[in-house]
Design a protein that fits this description.
Pfam families: NAD_Gly3P_dh_C, NAD_Gly3P_dh_N. The protein is an alpha/beta fold. The chain has helices at about 5-15, 40-55, 80-85, 110-115, 130-135, 160-170, 185, 215-220, 235-255, 260-280, 285-290, 295-305, 310-320, 325-330, 335-350, 360-370, 375-385; strands at about 35-40, 65-70, 75, 80, 105, 120, 145, 150-155, 160, 175-180, 190-195, 225-230.
């Protein structure tokens, strides 16, 4: 039985009571929008859960089935897709959380996306290029996308936010979702906020026919997951990527036992470098995205206190091991994006000859990749901080 054979059974089981629906007539589209999630890691599975809950509550607005593309692997001999579709739990990447039965795990990326009106990308960013190559020319040309990825694309040509890479490669408009959202907390329905950013495209087909900001709010907002929708796609994307570099440095401070004041200093300078980076290379960004949105300062704080990046940095300091080893020991297959982003940011700033304007990003790179002693971090950031 394929994943799709199961869909009709599932939607029968899930037909919601009429009282569940809070949809107003103006929100009802010509045909319910179909959402697909690409990715099934810690955050991918959590966002699939959030979206699937909303699809159940809004049957006139959204198709009842949410396909979730799963990078297939075997867990004790069983396929992960089969486990998800029968037990409704992602036992590897989001253990202990029951996924709604309308989340259907699909191992074939093209099949998962083929009828989607909205494709939500949620994978570690080192895998994005390969995914887009497989999807190119195969998605509905009228589809829209949202990137939940936190990372950057750096090449010889420059630096792009990932929403722009998705738009360019697939020819579909792409916004972003980013915020102070540690997945295990959101998955347990603990209250949090997030930021969604979306530009209505020039070829917008009209209300009821196309995704707009209100549809996105309905798709992602939950009583425990408060969505604020803005325009600044580049701003929330950069903030989500760059805070991972700062969190690695915050982890070094934790591991060295230097205390809260030192960690706050690193976070302060980190926020300053994040904003400086945005102003220099993405002038369309708004500074207040960094200082006022969940995707800005709040995400920096939560990641530096409870995220995987800070834990990896701390482990490196405590055990004197390379970042990749710490990632393997701590994360059971999950990914620490700060390791890649630190390198990508360093390479981009070096190409542009501006690395000296970013002493925290620079020393974090030197610690992870060049064996620079982390105890000397203050010397590097004190000196650099006075330059601008
Ligand atoms: N976990 C979290 O708390 C949050 C994560 N994010 C961001 O969301 C994005 C996705 O992160 P997570 O879902 O947490 O992923 P994760 O860190 O749990 O990564 C594991 C995922 O990578 C997949 N994978 C492994 N090898 C692969 C391959 N060769 N090709 C394709 N996929 C492969 C695995 O199947 C699994 O789904 C990242 O950019 C992350 O920074 C954003 C907010 C919160
Ligand atoms: O982005 C996140 C929280 O918003 C998750 O951060 P980590 O990847 O460090 O766990």
């Amino acid at each position: 039985m394929t994943a799709f054979d199961r869909l009709s059974n599932i939607s029968n089981v899930l037909a919601p009571p009429a009282s569940c629906s809070t949809v107003q007539s103006e929100d009802i589209p010509e045909k319910p929008y179909k959402a697909t999630v690409v990715g099934s890691g810690n955050w991918g599975s959590t966002i699939a859960k959030v979206v699937a809950e909303n699809c159940i509550e809004r049957p006139q607005e959204f198709d009842q089935t949410v396909c979730m593309w799963v990078f297939e692997e075997r867990i004790k001999g069983e396929k992960l897709t089969e486990i998800i579709n029968t037990r409704h739990e992602n036992v590897k990447y989001l253990p202990g959380i029951l996924l709604p039965a309308n989340v259907v795990a699909v191992p074939d990326i093209v099949e998962a996306c083929k009828d989607a009106d909205i494709i939500i990308f949620n994978i570690p960013h080192q895998f994005l290029g390969n995914i887009l190559r497989q999807l190119k020319g195969k998605v509905n040309p009228n589809a829209r996308a949202i990137s939940c990825l936190k990372g950057l694309n750096v090449s010889r040509e420059g630096c792009d936010v990932l929403a722009d890479v998705i738009s360019r490669e697939l020819g579909i408009n792409c916004g972003a979702l980013s915020g102070a959202n540690l997945a295990p907390e959101v998955a347990q329905c603990k209250w949090s906020e997030t930021t969604v950013a979306y530009h209505t495209p020039a070829d917008f087909r009209g209300k009821g026919k196309d995704i707009d900001k209100k549809v996105l709010k309905h798709l992602f907002h939950r009583p425990y997951f408060h969505v604020h929708v803005i325009d600044d796609v580049s701003g929330i994307s950069l903030a989500g990527a760059l805070k991972n570099v700062v969190a690695m440095a915050a982890g070094f401070v934790d591991g060295l036992g230097w205390g809260n004041n030192a960690k706050s200093a690193v976070m302060r300078l980190g926020l300053r470098e994040m904003i400086h980076f945005a102003k220099l290379y993405f002038p369309e960004c708004e500074e207040r995205t960094f200082t006022e949105e969940s995707a800005g300062v709040a995400d920096l704080i939560t990641t530096c206190f409870g995220g995987r990046n800070v834990r990896v940095g701390k482990y490196m300091a405590e055990h004197h091991v390379p970042a990749e080893d710490a990632e393997k020991v701590l994360l059971n297959g999950q990914s620490c994006q700060g390791i890649f982003t630190t390198k990508e940011v360093y390479e981009f700033l070096s190409q542009r000859d501006t690395i000296d304007e970013f002493p925290l990003f620079h020393v974090t790179y030197d610690i992870i990749y060049n064996g620079f002693p982390m105890e000397k971090l203050p010397e590097r950031i004190e000196r650099g901080d006075e330059k601008y």
